[in-house]
Write a structure and sequence with these properties.
The chain is of the alpha/beta class. The chain is about 25% helix and about 20% strand. The protein has helices at about 35-40, 65-80, 100-110, 130-145, 230-235, 255-265, 300-315, and strands spanning about 5-15, 50-60, 85-90, 115-120, 150-155, 155-160, 165, 175, 185, 190-195, 220, 240-245, 270-275. The N and C termini lie far apart (about 40 Å). The protein binds aspartic acid. Keywords: Hydrolase.
Length: about 325
């Protein structure tokens, strides 16, 4: 089902999809975030028939994503979704932090209309860029009257914000939804739903409205062989309010690090325990264990903790 009469808003933020290299065959030595979202639309003739509006919210390599851009992006998405003439929003984004932005937007806004992040692993100047097809597929999902929530579209797969994770640093099939699998597929302009659309409880724009310079500082430490408490101690000394520990296996933490985290938690630092495994998250919560991040990746757990601290501060 499609809302053909309704508008799709395309918000550009940069990334490899908007990247160019000096040599067309160079898929590595390029600069991300060079072409405007208008250029990306012009490269897909089929989009000429779609009522589109384009806006450049940022122009960066998503490895450099900032909280200020997240705040501006969430505000622009919310403003467009509130318009009755808008069916959905597409965001062009770098692949590196796409899953973090997706979780940020999903938890902040929990939109009833589709908000679709799309991307590319090859720059626009590539001999065979993957961006144009991903963009077209993303618009197909955004036009759907049934799709909802924050989604990622790449390589014909529609992945929920909760599940999406970058799992490959080079190949064009760089994203996975792990055990959950995709929520839908796009094939030749047809959206094929596979399971229910993701839902969430929106924290709301008020929670993220305060000056980003005042946002709580939340860090990430990794548990590994030979881990020592210095990273936790440095986080406490630097005045962080939250810390995610990227645990081994089912969220297990090296004893040197764990003792320091318990001590920091007793002193008021919020801690979440995630897993560094490529799939599976943290299952269960043994007595005395640090709070679990459940199925969230460490990077998304950091976003979650940041948002929880922001929501608390705004009430
Ligand atoms: N570094 C790039 C970015 O995240 C990678 C990409 O888009 O594939 O913006």
């Amino acid at each position: 089902m499609q809302n053909k009469a309704e508008k799709i808003v395309l918000l550009g933020t940069g990334g490899t999809i908007a990247g160019t290299s000096a040599q067309a065959g160079d898929n590595v030595g390029y600069t991300a975030g060079q072409l405007s979202v208008g250029h990306l639309i012009a490269a897909v003739p089929a989009l000429g028939h779609v009522p589109l509006e384009a806006e450049q919210v940022a122009q960066l390599d998503s490895k450099d994503m900032s909280h200020a851009v997240w705040q501006a992006l969430a505000q622009r998405v919310a403003a467009h979704l509130a318009r009755p003439d808008v069916a959905g929003v597409v965001i062009t984004h770098g692949t590196d932090t796409l899953e973090e932005t997706a979780w940020f937007l999903h938890r902040a806004l929990a939109p009833q209309k589709p908000v679709v992040l799309t991307c590319a692993m090859r720059p626009a100047s590539s001999l065979q860029p993957d961006g144009p097809q991903n963009l077209l597929d993303a618009v197909t999902v955004a036009q759907s009257a049934v799709a909802q929530g924050v989604l990622c579209v790449a390589q014909g797969q529609v992945l929920a914000a909760e599940d999406v994770r970058k799992v490959h640093g080079y190949r064009i099939d760089a994203f996975s939804a792990g055990d959950a699998g995709p929520v839908a597929r796009v094939e030749e302009g047809q959206l094929i739903a596979l399971r229910p659309w993701p839902q969430a409880q929106a924290l709301g724009l008020a929670a993220i409205a305060q000056d980003v310079a005042q946002w709580p500082r939340v860090g990430l430490v990794c548990s590994h062989a030979g881990a020592e408490p210095w990273a936790v101690e440095a986080a406490v000394a630097a005045g962080l309010q939250g810390l995610v520990v990227e645990g081994t296996g089912n969220g297990t933490v090296h004893h040197g690090l764990e003792a320091a985290l318990h001590k920091a938690q007793s002193a008021g630092l919020r801690v979440l325990r995630a897993s560094r495994c490529v799939a599976g998250g943290v299952v269960g919560a043994p007595t005395g264990a640090l709070p679990s991040a459940g199925g969230l990746t460490p990077a998304k757990a950091r976003v979650e903790l940041l948002l929880q601290l922001l929501a608390k501060a705004s009430t």
